[in-house]
Amino acid sequence: MRASRRIIRVSQRRVLAERPRLALGRTVAALRRSREAMADLEGQLGALLLCLRAPGARLDGGAANRLASARAEADLAMAALHHLGQVVG
């Protein structure tokens, strides 16, 4: 036996206002950017740890710049996410 479907009248439906819908899209985009930035930062740190654990380890000249750049991107992404949290919440 099939379960009956509940019909919701138009007057009972809850429709999101335009602004929260737009904010949701920006929040999702900010979450994606912050996840990517944090993954990049984690990758940079992991590569540095592998290099430092190797016998006779020497860091290449660009490692510090890449790490600083990854950190700056992560900081920007987290700040944007924090700002969107204040706007939406």
Structural overview:
- By secondary structure, the chain is mainly α.
- It has 2 helices and no strands.
- The longest helix has 36 residues.
- It is elongated and about 70 Å long.
Helix content: 55-70%
Low-confidence spans? none
Mean pLDDT across all amino acids? 76
Specify the number of helices: 2
The helix/strand series, from N terminus to C terminus, equals HH
Shape: elongated
Instruction: Tell me the structural class.
Output: mainly alpha
Main sheet summary: none
Portion in strands = under 5%
Number of DSSP E strands:
0
- End-to-end span in angstroms? 43 Å
Radius of gyration: 23 Å
What key phrases describe this protein's structure?
89 residues, mainly alpha, 2 helices, 70% helix, 0% strand
Summarize the structure.
The chain is mostly helical and 89 residues long.
Question: Mind sketching the topology for me?
Answer:
Elements: H1 18-53, H2 63-88
